[in-house]
Each structure stands twice: as C-alpha cells, then as structure tokens.
Design brief:
With 382 residues, the protein is of the alpha+beta class. It is 58% helix and 18% strand. It contains 16 helices and 10 strands. A hairpin with a 4-residue loop joins strand 2 and strand 3 (102-110). Helix 11 (240-278) runs parallel beside helix 15. It is elongated and about 95 Å long. The protein starts with a helix and ends with a helix.
C-alpha cells in the first residue's frame, strides 16, 4: 500500500504539467457545480423572501369566519416545532370608493407589535406612520397611485352589506408585492372590530415557520393538534406556480452538476489511461521485480484520489470565490444585491465528496489496463 502510494506520487511529480492539467480540470468542474448550486439556492431564497417572506406561511380559519378561543388555540400551536411567529387578525373584504372608480380591497386588522414581525411595516413604510389610532389605515403604494389617496386623506370603505366607514390614511407602505400593494389596507384591531363587529374574535390566525419548504407538513401537524374544526392553509398550496418554478430550477441545477461531474470522470479516466501507456515500461519493470497486480492497480487509484483531492479543494475555493464575485459586482439598478447569499455547507460538502469519489473511481479503467500489462512483452518491446 505504501509502495503504491509512493509510486503514485512519483508518477504525479514526474508529469507535472499533465498533473496540473488534471487538477485544473477537476477544479473547474467542481467550481462550476458549487457555483451553480449556491447561485440557485440563493436565487430561490431571494425570491421566496421577496414574495413569501413578508406574508403568512400558514393561515388558520374556520367555516364561520370566527375564532373565539385564540389563547387556547395559540397554546396548542406553540407545541408544534418549527413555528417562529404567530398572530391573530381580523380580515374583511370591501370596496374602496372613489369618485371615478371602486377598488376591491382587503382590510386587515392586526396588532402591530406582533404583525410587524411578519410584514415589517415599520421599515416598509415609505410615507407617514403606522395606523395606531382609531379609524386610521395604511395603504399600499400602488393603491395610493391608483386612487390618488395620500397621507392625511379620508377614504371610504364599503362592505358587501352596504355599511360604510370613513378611514384616515396615516401611512403608505411598499411590501414589494404588486397584488398586496394594490389591495391590502392595514388597520389596528380596535378599528377592525368597530367596522366588522364581534369584538374579541378573529377571522384568522397567521403563522410563519422556520422551514418554509416543509410548510405543508407543518400544516398537517398543526391541524392534528388543533382539531378538524379548523382549516389550515399553507403558502405552497396557494402558490403552486411559484413552487413549480422553484422545483424546475432545482432539477436543472442537479442535472447540470451531474453532467459536469460526469465530464470530470471521463476526462480523468482518459488522461490516466494515457498515463498507463506512457508508464508501461516502468510498470513492466516493477512487475518483473515482483510488484503484484493489486499494487499496480493501487498506483492509479492513489493517483486519482490525490489529483481529485487537490482539484476538489481548489474547485471549492474557486466556486466560492466566483459566487462572492458575482454577489459583489452583479447589482440591481438601485445598487442592491441581485441575490442574497445562502450557502448550504452540507451541499458544498456533499459535492466535494462526490467529486472526490468520482476522481478515485476514474482510476478503475487505467488500473485494469495496468493489470493486463505483461512485463515480458513490455520489456521485449521496449
């Protein structure tokens, strides 16, 4: 084993340029695989954060549209692992009445000390302040543009039953989601109860979870915990097209990585096979003086492992450097990052291990070729 290792190292050092070429080829393949993996994960994270990050991941409702036992409900929800934020809300549909046009809107009554953790309205407001006083409301940027309503203006909110309420615009927010900016009105719980009635009851309980891609399973667990009288919706069911797009990205990423690593395997195997021909005289002499077939095979296994290890380490460094260069220089028109970095180190480690295994596996073909070499024929033919 030690002799085979020493010979493998000697062969590598003897053909320096060839060895450097193999290491560089492995490094390029590994760096591409890691860069694509991190980039896709970061793009998905950025997309999810922009679309789902400032919205509930799970929503609990009832057929009667009334939740009267919130405290009891929350105590049961808190027993489920993976829950990060919980807050109740009073939601109601209606029309925002203007002289020229009526706009369908959703009035959301929330407790801002809890809901602000999800919607981040304090940091997302672009004008005015939070609607903390009675009959105050905060509207979206796009709705403000459409209706012409500004901070300090009165707006008219009409329910389906014809009940009308006059609300004062205290602020304007931008959650970066057009459908939300166009339709959601935020107000405090006291105002929502005054408009919709049933003080002390809620229409929904909104939840955020730690693992958003496991939200559907968390919803099932919560439903078992709170009982069948409640309905638990999750963002995955409500955003099927977005989820399909994310899954398509992940699949394409895996396919690219597979083909990149396959090309690395073929390249190493081809070059090491040529190395067997180049070193056939030395191998023949070694066999003639007693080197067993197993040890001659180990020479090329060790070569593949050593070259793969060096190339993998270099590839990981290249891949991370390439990604950070992308984050540094690829900017949005306003100077922000196109993606928010999300490095899953377990994926980096798994890619490295696979690349190392592929490099070692590439030594099988040249090893079998070396086993077939006859020392007599090699020495006879020079």
């Amino acid at each position: 084993m030690v002799l085979s290792l020493k010979i493998a190292i000697r062969f590598i050092l003897k053909s320096k340029w060839q060895s450097l070429f193999i290491i560089f080829g492995i490094a390029v393949g590994v760096s591409v695989a890691i860069f694509i993996s991190i980039l896709i994960d970061s793009l998905q994270y950025t997309l999810i954060k922009g679309t789902i990050g400032n919205a509930p991941h799970l929503t609990i409702t009832t057929d009667s549209n009334k939740i009267t036992n919130y405290n009891d409900l929350k105590s049961k929800i808190d027993k489920v692992s993976g829950i990060t934020k919980v807050y109740p809300a009073v939601d109601g549909n209606g029309l925002l009445i203007t002289p020229n046009k009526n706009y369908p809107v959703l009035l959301k009554g929330v407790s801002f000390d809890k809901a602000n953790d999800i919607y981040q309205l304090e940091t997302r407001k672009i004008e005015g302040r939070l609607p903390l006083a009675r009959s105050e409301v905060m509207i979206g940027k796009d709705l403000s543009v459409s209706t012409g309503a500004k901070v300090g203006d009165d707006i008219s909110f009409t329910q389906a039953n014809g009940s009308k309420s006059t609300l004062l615009v205290s602020g304007i927010y931008d959650l970066k989601i057009a459908t939300v900016n166009n339709a959601w009105l935020f107000t405090n719980l006291a105002t929502a109860w005054a408009i919709f009635g049933n003080e002390g009851t809620y229409t929904a309980v909104n939840i955020q979870v730690k693992d958003i891609f496991n939200a559907d399973q968390t919803a099932v667990t919560i439903n078992k915990q709170i009982g069948s009288n409640y309905k638990v919706d999750n963002w995955k069911a409500q955003n099927a097209q977005l989820l399909a797009g994310l899954q398509g990205q992940s699949t394409s990423s895996y396919m690219i990585q597979v083909f990149v690593l396959l090309s690395v395997l073929i390249s190493i195997a081809s070059i090491l096979s040529i190395s067997v021909t180049q070193k056939s005289k030395q191998i023949g002499i070694l066999k003639a003086i007693g080197l067993k077939n197993g040890k001659s095979s180990n020479i090329f296994y060790f070569q593949g492992f050593i070259l793969g290890f060096c190339g993998t380490v270099l590839g990981v460094a290249f891949g991370l450097g390439l990604f950070y260069a992308f984050v540094t220089f690829a900017k949005t028109p306003d100077g922000g990052n196109i993606v928010e970095p999300l490095i899953k180190w377990n994926i980096v480690l798994m890619t490295s291990v696979i690349a190392l295994a592929v490099s070692s596996f590439a030594g099988i073909i040249p090893a079998r070729k070396a086993n077939k070499l006859s020392p007599i024929e090699v020495i006879r033919n020079g």
